[in-house]
Specification:
Layout (H helix, E strand, L loop, with lengths): L2 H28 L30
Length: 60
């Protein structure tokens, strides 16, 4: 391996490391508010009274 190939590999590894760090930073930032570790749902009950609809035929 020549010196040029070693410096190219080192530069490539450095670039990969920088991109990886930037991606980890981006992902950590976007996941910050969405942990939901408690597993609790936002829906806690039904809305209003639950009744069966009744259809009547129009008379006359």
């Amino acid at each position: 391996m020549s010196d040029d190939e070693k410096t190219a590999d080192a530069a490539s590894e450095d670039m990969k490391r920088k991109f990886r760090e930037a991606l980890e930073k981006k992902n950590a930032h976007s996941r910050k508010g969405e942990a939901h570790l408690d597993g609790d749902s936002a829906v806690h009950g039904t809305h209003g009274a639950v009744t069966k609809r009744e259809f009547r035929r129009k008379s006359g």
